């Protein structure tokens, strides 16, 4: 059984004024080609299908066009879950029609996908809250998937059916997963877990979330789940949320973030992007193959000591999106900015780094540093308006609103 794992498509996302829809179209076609070349039987999309709750029409059209290609008229199962950028209701809305093409959606952790049988031989043979068993065309072994789309604490507790304290949430999730694994996931089939939660190895440093990613690891967003919380029956965990491809742990099984298909912020500059191809057999360790994606523009950060050096570099790197820092004694003139922008049409941001700028900083105390994160900017603004910093309760409320944006 060949499974292709991808995530964090963020369809409709822009980089400042730059649309990424053409790049997204190209890379999704590349993913379709990889699925065909690898003879994938199943596609798992682990959340953040869109970038906003109300994506633009062109993003919605691209999404369904791509899923139709991937499904091969019901001969291949496509399973997509909601991430923290997605509207669960929107994700599940086309379900009756999509199911007829072998496309299965889960918007909530407690979603129940109905059983089905297609002429191709694809079947959903068993279904439970947050679980499906799928019989694939021309594959003898069944596929069992525990599905946990993104949810904040309230939704997770609804899924678990427990109103216990936040500190025990990961334990309660583990208990729910183990309950499903014990009931359905024996060694006679392939057992997978797909989720859009923050999963880490206990004791390791938490990986950084993308610069412009909505954070999910705080009050109001789901707390971290540890790799030790994964049921022992699971053979592979398909994760979404982090944009860099990375392995969280190899125990009790490979636990991977596939990462986004293209770079969406300059924190991802020079990153290589991938999809993960899993070769799975019942009762055996899975094989992992990382397939690099080549479509989409790379994002580059460049720091130049003067305008002339910047112009030379820009001419040498035409097919990319650029964050350009210019070191100088004074702020850039309008003429210099125009010269740079005319030399390269992919400049997203020009940052002047002024030498010996203490006097300028002291004379402009009201300036805003937009490179800071949202919580820091909120704290500074609150302090400016109220004469004192926000207390912990206000910060927690702000983070909760941010996570539900």
Features:
eight-stranded mixed β-sheet, 11 helices, six-stranded mixed β-sheet
Architecture overview:
- The protein is of the alpha/beta class.
- Helices cover 29% and strands 25% of the residues.
- The chain contains eleven helices and 21 strands.
- It has helices at 21-37, 57-71, 88-92, 95-99, 153-160, 169-184, 307-316, 334-343, 358-362, 374-386, 392-403, and strands spanning 2-6, 14-15, 18-19, 42-46, 77-81, 103-106, 116-117, 123-128, 131-135, 143-148, 190-195, 199-200, 225-226, 236-239, 246-249, 255-257, 273-279, 287-293, 298-304, 320-328, 347-354.
- An eight-stranded mixed β-sheet has the order 7-8-9-10-11-14-16-15, with helices on one face.
- Strand 7 (116-117) and strand 8 form a beta hairpin.
- Helix 1 (21-37) packs parallel to helix 2 and helix 5 (153-160) packs parallel to helix 6.
- The longest helix is centred in the N-terminal third of the chain and has 17 residues, at 21-37.
- The chain is globular, with a radius of gyration of 23 Å.
- The model has no long low-confidence stretch (mean pLDDT 88).
Low-confidence stretches: none
- Count of DSSP-assigned helices: 11
Spatial strand order of the main sheet: 7-8-9-10-11-14-16-15
Judged by helices, strands and strand pairing, the structural class is alpha/beta
Residue share in helix = 25-40%
Tell me the strand percentage band. 15-25%
DSSP E strands, number? 21
CA(first)-CA(last) distance: 38 Å
Mean pLDDT: 88
Please tell me what the overall shape is: globular
Rg from alpha-carbon coordinates: 23 Å
Q: Largest sheet, if any?
A: 8 strands, mixed
